[in-house]
Specification:
Blueprint (H helix, E strand, L loop, with lengths): L1 E5 L7 H12 L5 E5 L7 H11 L8 E5 L10 E6 L2 E6 L12 E4 L15 H14 L23 E2 L3 E9 L5 E3 L3 H4 L5 E5 L2 E3 L14 E5 L5 E5 L4 H5 L6 E6 L5
Parallel strand pairs: 1-2, 1-3, 3-5
Antiparallel strand pairs: 4-5, 4-6, 7-8, 8-9, 8-14, 9-13, 10-11, 10-14, 12-13
Helix pairs in contact: 1-3
Length: 257
């Protein structure tokens, strides 16, 4: 199984070209499009999507991720193994959230690339063929020399405060839902929690988006397994004027409030 995650979109034929290359090398591969709508050049968004998604695929899957504003520069091309999965992509942090413990190599063996490797399309000419060869059973060590260190992105960890937790919004989905970095386990550490996100104040996490009145904000634990601020049949991002990087607070309610 090979998954594809890019910022290419579907207007141009770039994704189709990658699939064609993979089919020519490993025709039995099962290809799954994870997403091709990562915001252009947004490496953190791509890394977040990959980290939240790979665990739902069977062990042995190969994940190709291409959000690569540095294509053609000195940044290294990578293949690595982590958590029983293989990952292929640029060494710009894109793979780092999913692969916190890894065994990595720098892609250097030209026999596993297309004959002509362009300076602008490593997704087709380098990463797709490498993934197809991995899926065909080629061992990781054959692709190039070991790479002990890779570029790592910093995950914004929530901070403990005197009264609770300080977190932040890490993603905004197409519905305008505000995904935070607060997990259920962290949220439970605060007794009688009260959530503050911009003008939104909430004392209860709801079981679903539909638990709120139409147009009203609501707090839920969503599909990413993280706390979200949503709005019933509306965009919480627009309603609350919040976006990625904005702070959220969870504090313990006092007995008088």
């Amino acid at each position: 199984m090979i998954t594809l995650l890019t910022d290419f979109g579907l207007t141009d034929p770039f994704v189709g070209m990658m699939k064609g290359v993979i089919a020519g090398i490993c025709p039995d591969a099962h290809l799954i499009d994870l997403t091709h709508d990562v915001p252009p050049q947004d490496v953190f968004a791509g890394a977040f999507f990959l980290e939240r998604s790979f665990r739902y695929f069977p062990a042995g899957s190969v994940h190709v991720a291409v959000v690569d504003p540095g294509v053609g520069t000195a940044r290294a091309p990578l293949a690595l193994e982590a958590h029983g999965h293989h990952f292929v992509g640029p060494d710009n942090g894109l793979l780092s959230l999913a692969a916190r413990r890894y065994r990595a190599v720098r892609l250097a063996q030209a026999s596993f690339f297309l004959e002509h490797v362009s300076h602008t399309f490593h997704g087709r000419d380098l990463f797709a063929p490498a993934a197809a060869h991995l899926a065909s059973g080629v061992s990781l060590a054959r692709f190039g020399p070991p790479k002990k260190r890779i570029v790592k992105l910093s995950w914004p960890k929530p901070r403990k405060t005197r009264r609770g937790l300080s977190g932040e919004i890490v993603s905004v989905d197409r519905f305008g839902n505000l995904i935070t970095n607060l997990s259920p386990a962290l949220f439970k550490l605060v007794r009688r929690p009260r959530l503050f996100a911009g003008a939104f104040v909430c004392d209860q996490v709801s079981p679903s988006y539909g638990a709120a009145p139409r147009g009203a904000p609501v707090a839920v634990f969503g599909g990413y397994g993280l706390l979200e601020i949503a709005a019933r049949d509306a965009s919480a991002a627009q309603l609350l004027h919040l976006g990625r990087g904005d702070r959220v607070q969870v504090v313990e309610r006092t007995t008088s409030t």
